[in-house]
Amino acid sequence: MSVNIRIPTPLRKFTAGDDTVSVEGSTVGEVLSQLTENHPELKPKIFSEDGEVRRFVNIFANDEDIRFQDQLETSVDDGDQVSIVPAIAGGKP
Fold it and tell me: Are the C-beta atoms of residues 38 and 23 closer than 8 Å to each other?
């Protein structure tokens, strides 16, 4: 089943400029694994060395944060959308 992954602007240089990449998988973990196999430069940007999603990277499955679902085991269906959203910090208080 094909799932669309939305790639944020700062990471598009690793996907040849593509803002959406379609991959196969039935869980968020599977689709992210397929994404990083196809685009290995993304792996250290998304995952820590222990294989967990980096804490400053938010992953959404159909607009729902996977931290409040089944995390990487969150199910996805054909045509679903997964979004990678890096946390933004900085500025003056």
Answer: yes
Q: Do 80 and 62 form a contact (C-beta atoms < 8 A)?
A: yes
**In sequence order, what are the residues at sequence separation of 6 or more whose Cβ sits closer than 8 angstroms to the Cβ of residue 65?**
58, 59
**pTM, whole model, 2 decimals?**
0.89
pLDDT tens profile 27-75 = 999 999 999 999 999 999 999 999 999 999 999 999 999 999 999 999 9
Sorted by where each starts, the structural domains of the chain and their CATH numbers stand as: 2-86 (3.10.20.30)
Residue 48, burial from CB neighbour count under 10 angstroms (0-12, 13-18, 19+) = exposed
